[in-house]
Amino acid sequence: MIKAGIIGGSGYTGGELIRILINHPHAGIDFVYSTTRAGKPIAETHEDLVGSCSLKFTDTINPEVDVLFLCLGHGNSIAFLDEYSFSAKTKVIDLSNDFRLDKDSNYKKREFVYGLPELQKEKIKNAQNIANPGCFATAIQLALLPLAKKGLLAANIHINAITGSTGAGVSPSATSHFSWRNNNISWYKPFTHQHLGEINQSIVSLQNNQPNIFMLPQRGNFTKGIFVTSYMKFENSLEETWNLYKDFYVKDPFTHLSTKEVHLKQVINTNNCFIHLHKHEDVLLITSVIDNLIKGASGQAVQNMNLLFGFDECDGLKLKGSYF
């Protein structure tokens, strides 16, 4: 049984991570660090854990844990690792964007590997530290990477990506307030979202040239999930494309092709990504859906932990969604 430490366990991703780890067959939670909630029961903050988690938040760390999850705001992971030291055997999985790009992946004595299992599973297995992908980046890459692998991505790719309110984090803001978000929809960071960097990096690693990606992120009036539609000019037949995707994901237990149109309720509270392909004349439409907090964050982090420690990739992640 490996020991896990969690930094920043009071947020949405921290809560999901705790929920997954307390049911993991090979991992136990050693500590959940929080300076603002130290000494308080975790279940007071994450109320879905009442009756299943008796742990309390702490303001002390164990530098000898086997794996450390950083569930901190962007830019804060570097600051935390600058302040605290951990054993050389401690594997770090960072859920922020601090180490995702190649130019940021070397931090002092720690080298971070980009942790999208469907892209580079073998490299993850041999890594010591993982930069967990972003939620938008996960859903979009899973839609596009099979085409990039064959060098088939068109010059211009148009992407509409809509996310639930939990994507904005636990701290209230003007655009996550219920009275603003409910019965509403809006775009933000048009064509400039920070996840484009890691998306482009992965595409270039497969097909050696970078297409123009026009990404329009949108805020939805729901809590969890990401719904992505990507479309481009495309010559190959739908049957050829289907087989290409099927072959690409044949060894990936959480990414599935659907012959029917997909929707968010199929994947909420699971670590799955569902993908649907549709062809209209010379335009290919790819729809991909994930739970932003699980496959887009904490579930994928545990999936990476499983690969790092040689566990079954699915351990602790056979989560059951709720259709209604």
Task: Report on the architecture of this protein.
- One of its GO terms (molecular function) is N-acetyl-gamma-glutamyl-phosphate reductase activity.
- It is found in: Cytoplasm.
- Its EC number is 1.2.1.38.
- It catalyses: N-acetyl-L-glutamate 5-semialdehyde + phosphate + NADP(+) = N-acetyl-L-glutamyl 5-phosphate + NADPH + H(+).
- Belongs to the NAGSA dehydrogenase family. Type 1 subfamily.
- This protein is of the alpha/beta class and 324 residues long.
- The chain folds into two domains: 2-133 and 295-308, 3-Layer(aba) Sandwich (Rossmann fold); 135-292, 2-Layer Sandwich (Dihydrodipicolinate Reductase, domain 2).
- Helices cover 27% and strands 23% of the residues.
- The protein contains nine helices and 14 strands.
- It has a seven-stranded mixed β-sheet. Strands 9-10-8-11-14-13-12 form a seven-stranded mixed β-sheet.
- A hairpin with a 2-residue loop joins strand 5 (106-107) and strand 6.
- Helix 4 (117-125) runs parallel beside helix 9.
- The radius of gyration is 19 Å and the shape is globular.
- The chain starts with a strand and ends in a 16-residue tail after the last helix.
